[in-house]
Design brief:
five-stranded mixed β-barrel, elongated, alpha+beta, 4 domains, 441 residues, single chain, Serine Threonine Protein Phosphatase 5, Tetratricopeptide repeat
Length: 441
């Protein structure tokens, strides 16, 4: 959707990102080098690269280290310096590359080092402008592995439980869960995306964009989970984030596509009702239903205007489904009794009572249909209390103060339109008698 782009990790993780980027644990000093499996020259080369402050110069020293000592026990520290350097210079593709090199060393990297690497990888992936499918799939797997790495981290003795949970575990859980979800969605693995978006929302329930992405994941699943998707999108709208208008437009379009309504305006009331319901609950109740296009097509089978009127007057869920199915349909030869004489203005509007037999015709006292006749001005000649039949498109109905159907684009059957009366011929003016002649003239 225009204006809605990949959300970067929630702002709370920024502080933790700084902490994790702050530097690697220093390997054992040279005196213990032999015990650790690396030589004094290796250690000195590592220290020289670590302490270099110029980014370009540091990369040259790291490259030189790898060339001289390709199998060094210090490669974990070297790769950590690599990805920190690239993160600082915003070369996020290279961050992914060197994190993966470090992680490929397996148990040679201690749990904290692996955790830092997974975290840096998640941050870097979320900064890629347009990740490939392969990058997305790898980011999904790495983020899930990052959650496992997080569980392996023990709280330091000098850090209290509350601080550790709020400043380490919670921000990292948000980062890894969100990254797993977003990457899974980019890789079109929507079941995984749904799982981890929901896990993210447990921690950040007021993030409207995450609710939007969850809704898209539901709708993109095979088969689509439309009702859950609509609920998530409606909850995003209810949160009134910066993208509210765009999400609302998207939700409306998806609901229209799901229902294929003849009267598109009906979806607005359905959507407003849904947003109001979703505002008070994050989970869709089983009682919430929305008729699909297939449901509405089934309701149209054997539908007549008489059955429509009966269902609408009956109300309830059946009446709701009937109206969704009937609105916008053209019904032929609707019978009725004209209750008021037309004004003669165009378009001609007829106030008609729906009747199906002589008894109903005789007892009809008030109209229950207003019918807009288009392109047929002669319909104004129909007289009050006359029988009438028309074909028209059903466009609305009211129940208050009385039941009334609204029709548009109607045509009256010509047999019910009286023949235009011819004006009587004009009489010629009487001829004047000739003037009498005067005597003697």
């Amino acid at each position: 959707m225009t204006g809605i782009r990949k959300t970067v990790v929630v702002a709370i993780v920024a502080g933790l990102g700084v902490m994790l980027m702050a530097g690697a644990v220093t390997p054992a000093h040279a005196q213990e080098a032999g015990k650790q499996g690396y030589t004094m020259p290796e250690y000195n080369a590592y220290v020289e690269a670590r302490d270099e402050k110029n980014a370009a110069a540091q990369l040259r020293k790291l490259d030189d280290f790898v060339q001289k000592f390709p199998n060094s026990q210090l490669l974990t520290y070297i790769y950590e310096l690599y990805y920190q350097n690239y993160y600082a210079t915003k070369n996020f593709v290279k961050v992914l590359e060197y994190v993966d090199k470090l992680l490929a060393l397996g148990d040679k990297a201690d749990p904290m080092m692996r955790y830092r690497a997974y975290y840096a990888r998640a941050l870097a992936y979320n900064n890629l402008p347009s990740p490939t499918a392969d990058q997305a799939a790898k980011a999904r797997d790495a983020a899930i592995a990052g959650l496992q790495a997080l569980d392996a981290i023990k709280r330091p003795d000098n850090v209290d439980e509350k601080t550790f949970e709020e400043q380490v575990r919670r921000p990292a859980l948000i980062t890894f869960n969100y990254t797993a979800a977003a990457a899974a969605a980019a890789a079109k693995d929507f079941p995984t995306a749904i799982k981890y978006y929901r896990a993210t929302l447990v921690l950040t329930p007021d993030q409207a964009v995450t609710w939007f992405r969850l809704g898209v994941a539901y709708l993109s699943s095979t088969p689509p989970q439309q009702l859950d998707g609509f609920w998530a999108l409606a909850h995003a709208v209810a949160l009134k984030g910066q993208t509210e208008a765009q999400v609302k437009k998207y939700l409306r379009g998806q609901m229209l596509n799901y229902q294929q309504l003849g009267c598109e305006s009906l979806v607005d009331a359905e959507m407003n009702e849904l947003v109001a319901l979703a505002a008070s609950s994050t989970d869709r109740p089983d009682s919430y239903k929305l008729p699909s296009a297939a449901d509405l097509e089934a309701a149209r089978k054997d539908m007549t205007i008489a059955s429509v009127i009966a269902d609408l007057k009956g109300g309830g869920e059946k009446g709701k489904v009937t109206w969704l199915a009937a609105c916008g349909l053209e019904f032929p030869e609707v019978p009725g009794k004209l209750m008021e004489a037309p004004t003669g203005e165009e378009p001609v509007v007829l106030q008609i009572a729906f009747v199906t037999n002589d008894e109903e015709f005789q007892n009809a006292k008030t109209p229950d249909m207003d019918v807009k006749v288009v392109g047929q001005p002669e319909a104004a000649r129909i007289e009050k209390d006359s029988q009438v039949g028309f074909t028209g498109t059903l466009v609305g109905f009211d129940t208050n103060p009385a039941f009334l159907l609204h029709w548009d684009k109607a045509k009256v059957n010509p047999q019910f339109i009286p023949t235009e009366k011819k004006a009587p011929p004009k009489k010629a003016p009487p001829k004047k008698a000739p003037a009498k002649k005067q005597p003697g003239a």
